[in-house]
Every structure is written in C-alpha cells, then in structure tokens.
UniProtKB/TrEMBL annotation:
<dbReference type="InterPro" id="IPR036322">
    <property type="entry name" value="WD40_repeat_dom_sf"/>
</dbReference>
<keyword id="KW-0853">WD repeat</keyword>
<protein>
    <submittedName>
        <fullName>Uncharacterized protein</fullName>
    </submittedName>
</protein>
<dbReference type="InterPro" id="IPR001680">
    <property type="entry name" value="WD40_rpt"/>
</dbReference>
<dbReference type="InterPro" id="IPR019775">
    <property type="entry name" value="WD40_repeat_CS"/>
</dbReference>
<keyword id="KW-0677">Repeat</keyword>
<dbReference type="Pfam" id="PF00400">
    <property type="entry name" value="WD40"/>
</dbReference>
<feature type="region of interest" description="Disordered">
    <location>
        <begin position="71"/>
        <end position="94"/>
    </location>
</feature>
<dbReference type="InterPro" id="IPR015943">
    <property type="entry name" value="WD40/YVTN_repeat-like_dom_sf"/>
</dbReference>
<feature type="repeat" description="WD">
    <location>
        <begin position="290"/>
        <end position="323"/>
    </location>
</feature>
Length: 341
C-alpha cells in the first residue's frame, strides 16, 4: 500500500466514506482504497500527498450519536442541513487564507461535508492540518500561520503533536472542532472559527500525551499517554473549557490507543504492556483486563453497533472481542417475535 519500508501507520473508515477505507503511511501519503468483493482495490482510488512524517494518526470527523450509536443531525437553526464551513487554502502559496476579519471569511469559504475531511499533524510537527479528501488539498492549518506568531511559538514549545481527534459538536452549529495532544502532555481544544489560538488548554499527563478519543455525544473524552494515567474529561461547550471527571492510575505506563463505544457505556485502552483494559465510561471503574496479545497493543476500536471490540498489536494479530453487548430494542423485539412463532 505504501512504498518501501514506510509501512502503514493507521487506517480509517466511516459511514460517510461508503465502501472506502483510508490508509496513512510513513511515506507522507494517505491513500483511499475501494472495498470490493475479493478484498481491496489493487490500486488506490485517490492519494493525498500530505508530506508529513510523524507518529500522529489521522482522524476523520466525528458527529454526535444517539443512545443507540446512530449519527444525529447537526443542531442549529438549519435543522442540521448546513455542513461546516472552513476557509480554503492555496496549497502552493500562502498556507492559510486571512481570517483577520472574523467569521465572515468562513461564510465566504467553501462548504465541505465533514465526511470529506481529515485531520492530521502538519509538516510543522506542532501544527494540525485539515485536508479535503475529495480534492486532495489542504484547507486549513491550526494555529493559523498568518496570525499565529505568538500561538505558533507556544505550540512549538509543547513539542510534537502526538494525537488528534476531529469532531463536530451540536453546540458548534456545524463548525469543526479539534482536540490535539502534545509531547509535553498537554491537550488543546480548537474551533475553526478561531484558528489563531485554541479555545482551551489542559495538561493531564506528566509525559507525552499519545492518544485521545471523544465520546459519542461529543461532550467529553479520554486521554492516555506515556505515563501511568488515563484521564476522563468533560467538555463545556458554552465556556470552551475542559473539566477532569476521573483520573485512573494503571500499573504499567503507556497507552497507545483509546476507544469509547458509541453508546458511551464502556471504553477501552491499548497498552504498551500488551493489555487491553476496559472501563465503565461514566463511572471510571475498571471492568476487565484482556490478556491475549504478546506485544505492544497499538489500537482499539468498537463496531458501530456496539457489539464488538477489535484490538491490534505489534505481534501482528488482530483480536475481536464480544464485550457487554447492548440490549437494543430491536433485539428484544426479535426475541419476542421468535417466541410468538
């Protein structure tokens, strides 16, 4: 998929992409692949040359889900029909258009559907870039370079951007928000309407913050790092601030990946100690420690229907787990119908 010894660093799929998955390689490329009957297409259907070389996994945009894990419409006066707007960028010239006049520039910018955008750490490794998948072009940089002299220096002091999570909360009226985690253990919250500086900043880790995930309602999330702490936090969209809900200490340091089930019931972490840990997302208490992998665990993810958890490891295996499957109304109805028959 990616040339030479570059390797594939992450893959992403989503309902908005249809029968397409995206791979991110260490060669500075992101490629799209069509899912066919016999597997994946032999050739990529598109290639995005990001020219970024780092350890930060890309992120597709997340929108709020209902209690049963289905995507809800974006709130706002338009009833959710208006997509987020971001300013376009000429990738061959200036890095970002001038937004000094405020949000009016966004209204004049091109409307893009969130399903066609990905977030990734930038060529300047302390920055975050937004890319239009369909047209393979960069549309935004955070912080905005043309007005970010001070902010840019501050983010550089935080070191490399290690993790990003893109989302579109109901409270934003359809505008994109980003959580980005850094080498110094801090996490920043961005709103594209204010690209010059973050809304808020917190530091939950003493060492590098390596992974971050937003919950199904986009009202909070979990952060993991190279230390022995897992931080569960809430997001106050009115104030633009973080608040710590739970801080969990684990026996062995290092959390490479985090996932929160779409129904917000449970969460899982992928550890350097080869273990998958499962938590009650609301209460923060440990539910299980899964011991299968024989090397560092890299990624965990839940299925959209909340029935399965997948984990992958440096031991070259992928494991599927059935954990606390939800009792949905449809399942109850199906069982009732079978009894009646």
């Amino acid at each position: 998929a990616h040339g030479g010894a570059a390797g594939v660093y992450s893959i992403a799929a989503g309902a908005g992409l249809g029968n397409t998955i995206i791979s991110q390689g260490r060669d500075g490329l992101c490629k799209g692949w069509a899912i066919e009957e016999a597997g994946l297409s032999r050739r990529p259907i598109f290639t995005i040359k990001t020219s970024t070389y780092h350890f930060c996994k890309m992120s597709l945009f997340k929108v709020p889900c209902s209690a049963h894990g289905t995507q809800t419409s974006l709130s706002g006066s338009n009833g959710g029909t208006e997509p987020q707007r971001v300013p376009t960028e000429d990738n061959t010239g200036s890095d970002v258009v001038n937004l000094a006049e405020g949000t009016q520039e966004y209204e004049q910018g091109r409307s893009l559907d969130g399903k066609n955008i990905l977030a990734i750490a930038g060529q300047e490794s302390s920055e975050v870039e937004l890319w239009d998948i369909e047209n393979s072009r960069k549309i935004m940089c955070l912080p905005q370079r043309c007005s970010a002299n001070m902010t840019g220096r501050l983010t550089k002091k935080k070191g490399l951007c290690m993790a990003v999570q893109a989302f579109i909360p109901c409270e934003s009226g359809g505008y994109v928000n980003i959580l980005s985690s850094y080498e110094d253990g801090s996490t920043l919250w961005w709103d594209v309407r204010k690209p010059g500086s973050p809304l808020s900043s917190v530091k939950y880790h003493l060492e590098s913050a390596l992974s971050i995930a937003i919950d199904g309602l986009c009202t909070g999330g979990i952060s993991g790092g190279a230390d022995n702490k897992v931080a569960m936090f809430a997001l106050d969209h009115q104030q633009g601030t973080f608040s710590l809900r739970n801080e969990i200490e684990i026996e062995q340091p290092g959390i490479a990946g985090i996932a929160i089930r779409p129904d917000n019931k449970i969460a899982a972490t992928a550890g350097w100690d080869h273990r998958i840990r499962v938590y009650n997302y609301n209460k923060g208490n440990a539910l299980a420690v899964l011991k299968y992998h024989s090397a560092t665990c890299a990624v965990v993810t839940f299925s959209h229907d909340c029935k399965l958890l997948a984990s992958c490891s440096a031991d070259t295996t992928v494991a599927l787990w059935e954990l606390y499957p939800p009792k949905t109304p449809s399942k109850v109805l199906m069982a009732t119908e079978e009894v009646e028959r």
